[in-house]
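Work package 3, deliverable 3.1, input record:
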Amino acid sequence: MAKETQFVEQIANIDENFPQWYTDVVLKTKLVDYGPVKGTMVIRPYGYAVWENIQKEMNARFHKRGVENAYFPLLIPMSYFTKEAEHVEGFAPEVAVVTHAGGEELAEPLAIRPTSETIIGTMMSKWVQSYRDLPLKINQWCNVMRWEKTTRPFLRTSEFLWQEGHTAHASEEEAKDETMAMLEIYKEFAENCLAIPVLTGRKTEKERFAGAVATYTMEAMMHDGKSLQAGTSHYLGQNFSTAFDIKYLGNEGVLQTAYTTSWGVSTRLIGAIIMTHGDERGLVFPPVVAPIQCVIVPIAARKPGVVEACEALKTQLENAGIRVTLDNSDNSPGWKFNEWEMKGVPVRIELGPRDIEAGKMLCARRDTLEKVEMPLESAVDGVKALLDSVQKGLLEKARKHRDERIVYADDIAGILAGVEAGNFVKAGWCGCRECEDKVKEETGATSRVFAEGESAETCAICGKKAEHVIVFARAY
RNA sequence: UGAGGCGUAGCGCAGCUUGGUAGCGCGUUUGGUUAGGGACCAAAAGGUCGUGGGUUCAAGUCCCGUCGCCUCAACCA
């Protein structure tokens, strides 16, 4: 097992130093590299491929709901931000501003968008005149910039990629429905495509998006038990439509103010995949979004017929729509096994003279590291079934990991003990800000999401009557 | 933004206390032998010591600034 030890030394131990493990893995697998400007990252081809797969899956879902893609400008006049008081207050500290261009100071400073409610709201006010113009559902894939103080690749960067959907509706009910429908789409996507189980629900007032009436979130548990906000859907009510004058003439001839929503997920999802499924060997990608779904490692490649057989297999899998790579490099098979495992490829095929002779291939699955022999003649069906099984297996494993770490507490010591042990802690809450702040102060945990449909007798912090049950956790 | 640690060859590190010829392991290149869990032999290449300034005859080493990474805390859709 000496060689095993040597391998493990390449990345930090996942349980002993998770943050270092994360940094080691994202750099060594070439998902990402650091940019020259503080907090910026270069998303390398292996990482960008994940993002493209995410885009593909999400676009299909958006289009099904009647959402159209568009693109709005990067630069937003500063004055737009001041139109919604809470929004500007919330974002002002982290907005980067362009003050000079063309060798001159600009008459009006331009914000580099931290989010686009303001400019999209402005444009919507032009486009929405009649109830017939509603609902208006627009999404954009773009970069945004938020000058964060502490950064980490994918999880929190100064500039990141995301999608932001913005919709306008005639009625409050319809806008609320849209908010919840998008949250449901996010959840379905997270579970079925990323194999990440999520808790969904409303955020507290403290954690609400600046300018929203209500913020809904999906929260995922990472390997170390901390929570990651993986996506949000905001019901904006008439806050932005009032500020940006999104009005329409209803069918009874009266001028009405629209109701809007916004919702987004970002490249942070890639961080979520890494921290949910990763293990001591490195990345583990869910097949649906894996850049490479299957790698073929030839054994004794110089023996006659081996390379040809590998290439034929590759073509066959490729034609069936499987993202497959043949590793023809000069490294030893053992080296390749470890390398592709670190890179998280869900299925590996070992193909050597013995297999070819017997009409078989040896398949190893990344999640359990199990190896199974399969007939070469039904390779496509075999690999597809295996990919499907890995996808399901990862979700089950992640769900089990999370469910085992959801505990209840009825006092603040219990909350502290719970989060110290890497759990999500459900506790009764009276609803006041003081109690919420006290939990943060004394345990380092924040309220993540309301536990819908659950109730408690008393507030775990002050002992008064509980109005809600909250999920508390330390978070990224 | 506070407190601490780190930055020397592609990667991991030693050298710094006490200033005086730039080191080790892995990897890389070339040739050969190999190949089912990080193969072996031989030869070779590779460094403005993160960066800017200062002290000094002389700085990887001492001093100041700055950038980046890690940990804890604070801040934060």
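Residues 7-277 of chain A form a domain with the BirA Bifunctional Protein; domain 2 fold (CATH 3.30.930.10).
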